[in-house]
Structures are given as C-alpha cells and as structure tokens.
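Students often ask why inverse folding is considered easier than folding. One informal answer: many sequences map to the same fold, so there is more than one right answer. In these notes we will look at a single instance of the problem. The structure comes first.
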C-alpha cells in the first residue's frame, strides 16, 4: 500500500473508542448543493465509525442520500462540512491524483450495471486495475485468474461479457474489485440488475469474501431483506440523515 499523502485529521471520539480497529470515520459530515438561490441538502449530520472487517448495509429510499454517501466514501466527491477518513487517508484534503491513488489502493467498487469492458475477456477485465496500479505484466494474468477462481469463475477466464450470464458478469466485477486486495469493498445496488436467486448468490459471495478474507464490506441497497441474513449492521438513511444504526 502506498504511503498516504496526509494523515487523517484528529477525531477524538474515534481515536479514544476504537483506535486500531476503525477503518472508516465520518465526523459531522454534510454535503449540500447550491441550486441557484436554494441549498439542497443531500447529506447532513453524518457521524459514524465502521470497524475494520465489518459487513454493513446502507439502506434508504430513492433520494435519501445513498449515492452521495458512496461518492464521498470513494473520494469521487468532497464533503461541504466535516471530515471523512479511511485508514490513514483524510479524504477531504486529497488532490485529484491522490484521490485516484486512494481509490486504487483502498477500495474496490461493484456497480449495479457491472461496467465491464465488452471487448475484453473476463481475465482482461479483472486485470485492468492492476495495470492502473502499475503491477508488472507478468504478474497480472495470474492474479486476475486467482481472483476469478475466488468468485467461482476459474473456468471462464477467456469468456467475454456477452458470453457470460448476468450473475457471472457480476462475479467478474467482484473479482475486479478484489484483485488489488483493497481493505474496503463497496457494492452499489449489486443485485439491481439480477433476478432474485442470482442476486442472492452475489450477496452470499460478498459474505464469503467478507468472512474468508476479513474484508470490510458496505452494500448499498433499496431492499434490506436481501442482505438481512448476512449483514452485521444496518444504517438507514432518510432525507440525508442516518435515522437508525442497528446491529443485526
Ligand atoms: P439516493 O442515491 O439515495 O437516491 P442521492 O444521494 O442521489 O440519493 O441524492 C440525495 C439528494 O441530493 C436528492 O434530493 C438529490 O436530488 C440531491 N442531489 C444529489 N446530487 C445532486 C446534485 N449534483 N445537485 C443537486 N442536488 C443533488
């Protein structure tokens, strides 16, 4: 992992309660948008700590702030108030290139729409983040194959997305998110494009990765029922606020 460019800001509460184990801290975070003379509040008063290794579900209706939360946590956006830290990274202070470095080293993201490159094989898709991370060509292919093995696609290395089912495509996307060995895995409505049985298999795969590899997982979903049997915690968002933070 590269040396972070700047230490996390002091967060006395987080520091005193769980110094070694907290991976993510939101401290008084807000994100507002100016729309002409109006201020739109997408998120406000967000104070949470996610310990390293926890499986968390973030649920809420449309417009509750889920995407804004994910954009902030993946350093695609900055808070207008407060501080966010992930490991030793203070996300509010990063330059563009540091944001990219943060994303490459600290997080893997799985999207509802898979976002695979259609002309590339499964193995080439999974190897893409390794190119960005500067991994030597000789190592990429084997690491991509290993990640595809973990998600049960060791026999589909040379298939293109159009030659795979929806569930298999999402498995490739999970392998791509894992291949750089990030501590934090973010899944944005990962079952939204799948039938319910296939969706359940993807949730079970995320749980497997969480349990076997000790990875911290945050799943954003409209449907709490689909993650209820695996998640350790649920954060409920409404109108930009966390209205419930419950252990499961
Ligand atoms: P969700 O992902 O839960 O549907 P969002 O995070 O997309 O919710 O949006 C939360 C609120 O912030 C919504 O009211 C939305 O209209 C507003 N919002 C999000 N992005 C912007 C933006 N770029 N400009 C103005 N308002 C925005």
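Output (designed amino acids):
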């Amino acid at each position: 992992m590269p040396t972070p460019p700047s230490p996390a800001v002091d967060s006395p509460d987080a520091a005193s309660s769980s110094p070694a184990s907290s991976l993510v801290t939101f401290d008084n975070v807000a994100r507002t948008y100016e729309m002409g003379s109006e201020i739109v509040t997408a998120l406000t008063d967000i104070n949470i700590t996610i310990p390293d290794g926890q499986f968390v579900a973030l649920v809420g209706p449309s417009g509750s702030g889920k995407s804004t939360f994910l954009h902030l946590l993946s350093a695609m956006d900055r808070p207008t108030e407060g501080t966010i830290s992930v490991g030793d990274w203070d996300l509010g202070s990063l330059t563009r290139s540091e944001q990219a470095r943060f994303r490459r080293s600290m997080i893997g993201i799985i999207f509802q729409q898979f976002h695979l490159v259609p002309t590339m094989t499964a193995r080439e898709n999974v190897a893409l983040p390794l190119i960005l991370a500067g991994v030597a060509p000789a190592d990429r292919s084997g690491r991509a194959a290993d990640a595809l093995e973990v998600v049960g696609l060791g026999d589909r290395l040379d298939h293109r997305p159009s030659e795979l089912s929806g569930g298999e495509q999402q498995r490739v996307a999970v392998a791509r998110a894992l291949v750089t060995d990030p501590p934090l895995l973010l899944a944005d409505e990962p079952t939204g494009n799948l039938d319910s049985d296939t969706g359940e298999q993807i949730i079970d795969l995320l749980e497997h990765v969480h349990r076997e590899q000790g990875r911290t997982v945050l799943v954003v979903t409209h449907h709490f029922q689909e993650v209820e049997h695996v998640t350790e915690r649920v954060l409920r968002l409404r109108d930009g606020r966390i209205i419930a933070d419950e252990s499961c």
